[in-house]
Amino acid sequence: MKPVNRLICIALLASLPLLGACSRPPAAPDAGTAAPTTELGKKVRAATEEARKKMATENIDVSSSFTNGVRDLPKAEITPQGDLLISSQPISIDDKQRSLLLTHRANLIAVAEAGMAIGVQGADLGMKAAGEALKGIFSGNPGQVEENIKAEAEKIKLEAAKLCARLPALRDSQDAAAAAIPEFKPYATMDQSDIDNCQVN
Question: Per-residue pLDDT tens for 132-143?
Answer without folding.
Answer: 555 555 556 655
